[in-house]
Amino acid sequence: MKHILETERLWLREFNLGDKEFVIALLNSPGWLQFIGDRNVKTDEQAAHYLENGPLKSYRENGYGLYLVEQKADNCAIGMCGIINRNYLDSPDIGFAFLPDFNGKGYAFEIASATMVYAKDTLHLPKIAAITVSENARSIRLIEKIGLTFSKPIHLPGSTEVVWLYTT
């Protein structure tokens, strides 16, 4: 397993195909479905496809992507965080999501802050963005707390959905 970084309580590591069960749980959690949307990942086969065509492909093509967040104490997978290239944004963006049992414990701020430092100091990315729906108050608070500011609303390509764009 390739560890990307560590904080006081957490590891950030690359996803692998052994993480299918976790991916199914996270992508079908209430917060993911409400604020990110249904990705139709319900089976091991669909989870493998999601990993192969998402995080694993991004590691190969960009040298970074979404990573698994684990507690150091017990190696329990609790969420994901990382940097994503989206063809409709001018710069890479930070993304994060956690299983419901791990919300409100400071984990998201801990790992997102470290990911921002990693993006700047290790990946040498000059600018980082973030997107979220306007209804996701927790996400907005975190995005602002890690140093991004509201830029403008944007339409997602091929959709009527509007998200808020934040930038460094």
CATH architecture descriptor name: 3-Layer(aba) Sandwich
Strand order of the largest sheet: 1-2-3-4-5
Any idea how many domains? Answer: 1
Shape: globular
Mean pLDDT, to the nearest integer, reads 97
CATH topology description: Aminopeptidase
Major beta-sheet overview: 5 strands, antiparallel
Question: What do you see in this structure?
Answer:
This protein is 33% helix and 27% strand. With 168 residues, the chain is an alpha+beta fold. Strand 4 (77-84) and strand 5 (93-98) form a beta hairpin. Helix 1 crosses helix 3 (44-53) and helix 3 (44-53) packs parallel to helix 4.
Supply the key terms:
168 residues; alpha+beta; Aminopeptidase; five-stranded antiparallel β-sheet; three-stranded antiparallel β-sheet; 8 strands
Topology:
Elements: E1 3-6, E2 10-13, H1 20-27, H2 30-35, H3 44-53, H4 55-62, E3 66-71, E4 77-84, E5 93-98, H5 107-121, E6 129-132, H6 137-145, E7 149-155, E8 162-167
Antiparallel strand pairs: 1-2, 2-3, 3-4, 4-5, 6-8, 7-8
In short:
Helix content is 33%, strand content 27%.
